């Protein structure tokens, strides 16, 4: 019995010593300072459409990789392209796409397709706006209906809905502040811009 007690006590001491033992750090191997030429990155197969876009003149930007964010220069270039788009205008108190708005949006579709082909991870923002007349709540709802009408039109023309976001500014962002029908007409619009 005495031997069994001593054996258990010895085992307990051994285990407690092993549990409290701190390993000494192993010295890190010094970094190899011999210069080595890096191997070129393997070329990834790109769809034909992307290869054609990349081989167009320098004005067309290169396609960033998946998950890539735009560089400041790419963001400026994208905003310059989007600034050339025309706004879809709406009648007073309406969110129906008029004939002239349909013509404008059809002309914008080609530019939007090119943008989304060049920037596949970029979303575009369809902004709905209203003139100053009416309450803030009413104009926010009206701006939302206008943005949705423009989005639905663009989707019907083949633009992927997953790359379009909506926002309504109501009467918060007028582009004209005169109190004339011409000015109010310019503020009743759907505008496409880059999502942040």
Mind sketching the topology for me?
Blueprint: H1 2-20, H2 48-54, H3 72-83, E1 88-89, H4 99-118, E2 124-129, H5 136-156, E3 164-170, H6 181-187, E4 189-194
Parallel strand pairs: 2-3
Antiparallel strand pairs: 1-4, 2-4
Can you describe this structure?
The chain has six helices and four strands; from the N terminus they run αααβαβαβαβ. The protein has a four-stranded mixed sheet with strand order 1-4-2-3. With 196 residues, the chain is α+β, with helices and mostly antiparallel strands.
Question: Can you give me a brief rundown of this structure?
Answer:
By secondary structure, this protein is an alpha+beta fold.
List keywords for this structure.
alpha+beta; 196 residues; 44% helix; 4 strands; 60s Ribosomal Protein L30, Chain: A
Query: What structural class results from the helix and strand content?
Result: alpha+beta
Q: Uncertain runs with pLDDT below 50, 5 residues or more?
A: 18-67
Over the alpha carbons, how many angstroms does the gyration radius reach?
31 Å
Provide the residue-averaged pLDDT: 77
Beta-strand fraction estimate? 5-15%
Briefly, what CATH class of the domain at 75-196? Alpha Beta
Overall shape: it is globular
Strand order in the sheet with the most strands: 1-4-2-3
Helix content: 40-55%
N-to-C terminal Cα separation, in Å?
Answer: 78 Å
How many helical elements? 6
CATH homology superfamily of the domain at 75-196: OmpA-like domain
CATH architecture classification of the domain at 75-196: 2-Layer Sandwich
Largest sheet: 4 strands, mixed
Q: Find the CATH topology of the domain at 75-196.
A: 60s Ribosomal Protein L30, Chain: A
The ordered string of helix (H) and strand (E) elements is: HHHEHEHEHE
* Total strands: 4
């Amino acid at each position: 019995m005495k031997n069994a007690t001593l054996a258990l006590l010895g085992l307990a001491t051994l285990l407690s010593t092993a549990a409290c033992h701190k390993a000494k750090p192993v010295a890190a191997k010094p970094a190899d300072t011999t210069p080595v030429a890096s191997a070129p990155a393997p070329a990834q197969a790109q769809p034909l459409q992307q290869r054609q876009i990349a081989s167009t003149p320098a004005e067309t930007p290169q396609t960033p990789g998946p998950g890539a964010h735009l560089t400041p220069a790419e963001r400026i270039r994208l905003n310059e392209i989007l600034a050339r788009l025309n706004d879809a205008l709406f009648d007073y108190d309406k969110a129906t796409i008029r004939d002239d708005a349909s013509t404008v949006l059809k002309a914008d579709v080609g530019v939007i397709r090119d943008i989304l082909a060049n920037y596949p991870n970029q979303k575009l923002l369809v902004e709905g706006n209203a003139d100053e007349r009416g309450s803030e709540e009413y104009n926010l709802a009206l701006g939302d209906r206008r943005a949705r009408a423009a989005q639905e039109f663009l989707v019907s023309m083949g633009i992927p809905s997953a790359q379009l976001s909506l926002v309504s500014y109501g009467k918060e962002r007028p582009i004209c502040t005169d109190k004339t029908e011409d000015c109010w007409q310019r503020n009743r619009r759907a505008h496409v811009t880059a999502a942040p």
